[in-house]
Amino acid sequence: MSDVTIEPARDGDLAEILRTFERFWGDWDFPRPLHHPMFFCEFGDTAFVARRDGEIAGYLLGFVAPTGDGYIHFVAVRDDARTLGLGRRLYETFAAAAAQRGATALKALTSLENTGSQAFHRRMVFTDMTEVPDYAGSGRARIVMRRSLPL
Ligand SMILES: CC(C)(COP(=O)(O)OP(=O)(O)OC[C@H]1O[C@@H](n2cnc3c(N)ncnc32)[C@H](O)[C@@H]1OP(=O)(O)O)[C@@H](O)C(=O)NCCC(=O)NCCS
Fold first, then answer.
1. From the alpha carbon of 114, which atom of ligand 1 is closest?
2. What pTM was estimated for this model as a whole?
3. CATH for 4-148, among 3.40.630.30, 3.30.470.30, 3.30.360.10, 1.10.1270.20?
4. What is the pLDDT of residues 60-77, one digit of tens each?
5. Could you tell me which of 96, 84, 115 has the C-alpha nearest to residue 46?
6. Could you tell which of 21, 80, 83, 91 is best to mutate to test the pocket of ligand 1, judged by most ligand atoms within 8 Å of the CB?
């Protein structure tokens, strides 16, 4: 999509994302409270938004952990902008920023039911996908997905 720019996140982006949350997550509400402002303030160097016509059409929130993992906390593309390559472009931008800050691998999580996310991450060559029971202490399993860098 040539009319989309990938830019560092800026003031006001979190509020815009929360205002239009259902366009990214449908009726899944559990990610909402996990959109903590620290991803924009403390980890703003590794937070990116995709903009089309001045609106946020996708975003990726992440950081580089002391383990050397570039950790993707959330990636989401608006319902009208999916499968056009935006998720891939956000990952490419994050991977470059993370590698520049010393990351040697990428790590992301998803749920068992989020088969779309699993398919996307397989296409992004996350070769290590491991189901971990009770990963978050809530009694629910998560799929822990990893791949090495560079992308
Ligand atoms: C997962 C998500 C971010 C993917 O974003 P996207 O912009 O649609 O992905 P892209 O267009 O960059 O797709 C990259 C590749 O993954 C594939 N892909 C993307 N979504 C897919 C799906 N649901 N099923 C199968 N393949 C998929 C694309 O076909 C493409 O394949 P290619 O390499 O052969 O071209 C988007 O579907 C989304 O926001 N989902 C809701 C939020 C969510 O679940 N986020 C992930 C939480 S861990």
1. 44
2. 0.97
3. 3.40.630.30
4. 999 999 999 999 999 999
5. 96
6. 83
